[in-house]
């Protein structure tokens, strides 16, 4: 007797659902579209996930989050190659992880589109992204960047600084077509390298000048001591 072929229906549903959700967003995709693309039926979604929302959340938990873990692993691996990494090394490793990192172009496109659609119309999935990816990444960066900042920098200022770094990197990642068109420049490896150099330089200038930044109450950090 031969062993029966494994049933990969659940994996097909996850893969096709992710592609469709990334293309159209959660609300615009029907269960029939997903089952047709996955060569399956409605009963399979009910059996494996219960309903469409649970399928959507499973896409984030089982496909989006693992890819984000891959970016974080790439970041940590690149940084570990430095014996005594400083803030500029951290920023370079982080930017490299996103712009030259572990994802293929198809994975990157799907990953970005899915997240953009989720941010446009947030669901419970955004809580998964924050708890599983964003908070841990913030913690990693906070521990690396804090020694470069004055002791008077409070948690709010530090968190905003981290968001500024991440936002710059993500913009260059998400807006590649816009950057290419504006600059009349193909987003190839050579250009990515120059973008990463710019991100590192711009970030370090911001960190070096952070002593002069006023907090939201209009007081300099010297005045808040």
Task: Tell me what you see in this structure.
The protein is an all-alpha fold and 225 residues long. It has a domain of 152 residues: Tetracycline Repressor, domain 2, CATH 1.10.357. The N terminus and C terminus are likely disordered.
Quick overview:
By secondary structure, the chain is an all-alpha fold. The protein is 72% helix and 0% strand.
- End-to-end span in angstroms? 78 Å
> Beta-strand level of the residues, as a percent range?
under 5%
> How many strand elements?
0
- Series of secondary-structure elements, N-terminal to C-terminal: HHHHHHHHHHH
Largest sheet: none
CATH superfamily of the domain at 60-211: Tetracycline Repressor, domain 2
Q: What is the helix fraction of residues, given as a range?
A: over 70%
CATH-assigned fold name of the domain at 60-211: Tetracycline Repressor, domain 2
List keywords for this structure.
elongated; 225 residues; Tetracycline Repressor, domain 2; 72% helix; mainly alpha
Summarize the topology.
Layout: H1 9-24, H2 31-37, H3 42-48, H4 52-80, H5 87-99, H6 105-120, H7 125-145, H8 155-174, H9 176-183, H10 189-208, H11 221-224
